[in-house]
Amino acid sequence: METLKVELELPRELLGALNVNAAQLAQKAKEALVLRLFQEGTISAGKGAEIVGLSKAAFIDLLDREGIPYLSLEPGELAEDVEAALAVSREGE
Protein backbone atom coordinates (compact mmCIF):
# COMPACT_ATOMS: atom_id res chain seq x y z
CA MET A 1 0.00 0.00 0.00
CA GLU A 2 1.42 3.35 -1.03
CA THR A 3 1.42 5.81 1.85
CA LEU A 4 1.13 9.56 2.18
CA LYS A 5 2.62 11.50 5.07
CA VAL A 6 0.45 14.32 6.40
CA GLU A 7 1.68 16.92 8.86
CA LEU A 8 -0.78 18.38 11.38
CA GLU A 9 -0.26 21.22 13.77
CA LEU A 10 -2.02 20.53 17.05
CA PRO A 11 -1.83 22.14 20.48
CA ARG A 12 0.74 20.42 22.69
CA GLU A 13 -1.92 20.19 25.44
CA LEU A 14 -3.51 17.34 23.48
CA LEU A 15 -0.65 15.09 24.53
CA GLY A 16 -1.36 15.75 28.18
CA ALA A 17 -5.12 15.70 27.81
CA LEU A 18 -4.98 12.30 26.12
CA ASN A 19 -2.07 11.10 28.28
CA VAL A 20 -0.11 9.96 25.20
CA ASN A 21 3.21 10.72 23.53
CA ALA A 22 3.57 12.16 20.02
CA ALA A 23 3.77 8.75 18.31
CA GLN A 24 0.69 7.54 20.17
CA LEU A 25 -1.15 10.73 19.20
CA ALA A 26 -0.35 10.07 15.54
CA GLN A 27 -1.76 6.53 15.86
CA LYS A 28 -4.88 7.82 17.62
CA ALA A 29 -5.42 10.40 14.87
CA LYS A 30 -5.05 7.69 12.22
CA GLU A 31 -7.51 5.46 14.09
CA ALA A 32 -10.02 8.30 14.42
CA LEU A 33 -9.90 9.00 10.69
CA VAL A 34 -10.21 5.34 9.76
CA LEU A 35 -13.08 4.78 12.20
CA ARG A 36 -14.92 7.73 10.69
CA LEU A 37 -14.39 6.42 7.17
CA PHE A 38 -15.66 3.00 8.25
CA GLN A 39 -18.76 4.55 9.85
CA GLU A 40 -19.50 6.41 6.63
CA GLY A 41 -19.17 3.20 4.64
CA THR A 42 -16.23 4.58 2.68
CA ILE A 43 -13.90 1.72 3.65
CA SER A 44 -14.39 -1.88 4.75
CA ALA A 45 -13.34 -3.34 8.09
CA GLY A 46 -10.56 -5.23 6.31
CA LYS A 47 -9.19 -2.04 4.75
CA GLY A 48 -9.53 -0.19 8.05
CA ALA A 49 -7.62 -2.94 9.83
CA GLU A 50 -4.89 -2.80 7.20
CA ILE A 51 -4.51 0.97 7.46
CA VAL A 52 -4.21 1.04 11.26
CA GLY A 53 -2.01 -2.07 11.36
CA LEU A 54 -4.40 -4.44 13.13
CA SER A 55 -5.85 -7.83 12.36
CA LYS A 56 -9.48 -7.73 11.28
CA ALA A 57 -10.51 -9.27 14.63
CA ALA A 58 -8.55 -6.59 16.52
CA PHE A 59 -10.16 -3.89 14.35
CA ILE A 60 -13.61 -5.26 15.19
CA ASP A 61 -12.60 -5.12 18.88
CA LEU A 62 -11.58 -1.47 18.35
CA LEU A 63 -14.97 -0.76 16.80
CA ASP A 64 -16.62 -2.32 19.84
CA ARG A 65 -14.49 -0.28 22.29
CA GLU A 66 -15.44 2.89 20.41
CA GLY A 67 -19.15 1.96 20.33
CA ILE A 68 -19.24 1.63 16.55
CA PRO A 69 -21.36 -1.24 15.22
CA TYR A 70 -19.61 -3.67 12.88
CA LEU A 71 -22.88 -4.41 11.09
CA SER A 72 -25.21 -1.55 10.34
CA LEU A 73 -28.24 -3.52 9.22
CA GLU A 74 -31.66 -2.72 10.57
CA PRO A 75 -33.33 -5.68 12.34
CA GLY A 76 -35.70 -6.21 9.40
CA GLU A 77 -32.82 -6.22 6.92
CA LEU A 78 -30.93 -8.75 9.00
CA ALA A 79 -33.97 -11.02 9.19
CA GLU A 80 -34.35 -10.80 5.40
CA ASP A 81 -30.70 -11.70 4.88
CA VAL A 82 -30.96 -14.66 7.24
CA GLU A 83 -34.11 -15.91 5.50
CA ALA A 84 -32.47 -15.55 2.07
CA ALA A 85 -29.41 -17.49 3.26
CA LEU A 86 -31.63 -20.25 4.70
CA ALA A 87 -33.58 -20.46 1.42
CA VAL A 88 -30.35 -20.86 -0.56
CA SER A 89 -29.06 -23.52 1.80
CA ARG A 90 -32.36 -25.45 1.52
CA GLU A 91 -32.06 -25.42 -2.29
CA GLY A 92 -28.75 -27.23 -2.04
CA GLU A 93 -30.22 -30.11 -0.02
Write up what this structure looks like.
This protein has helices at 13-18, 22-40, 45-52, 56-65, 75-91. By secondary structure, the chain is mainly alpha-helical. The protein has one domain.
List the domain count as a whole number: 1
Approximate shape: elongated
| Percent range for β-strand residues | under 5%
Q: State the secondary-structure class.
A: mainly alpha
How many angstroms does the end-to-end distance come to?
43 Å
Helix content: 55-70%
Low-confidence stretches: none
How many extended strands?
0
Key structural traits:
93 residues, 0% strand, elongated
How would you concisely characterize the structure shown here?
With 93 residues, this protein is an all-alpha fold. It is 65% helix and 0% strand.
Give the arrangement of secondary structure elements.
Layout: H1 13-18, H2 22-40, H3 45-52, H4 56-65, H5 75-91
Helix pairs in contact: 2-3, 3-4
